[in-house]
Known about the structure:
Strand order of the largest sheet: 1-2
Largest sheet: 2 strands, parallel
Low-confidence stretches: 1-6
Number of domains: 1
Distance between the termini: 48 Å
Strand content: 5-15%
Number of helices: 3
Order of helices and strands: HEHHE
Radius of gyration: 13 Å
Amino acid sequence: MSAQIQPQSDIAQVVEKIFSSRRxxxxxxxxxxxxxxxxxxxxxxEQIYVNRVFEALRRGLLKVVD
Length: 66
């Protein structure tokens, strides 16, 4: 029996982009929020991604740019 690799969620892709550049643009913010809000329920992993972004913003680890 082979293990199936699950594709990364859209939220994970957005968060990966945000953290790799250490900044969040308006386009990133829009994509992040629309992806998160389009779901009826976030998975546990997606909740962790959302919390990571908000915590990084709160601590000043991400630069907000236009």
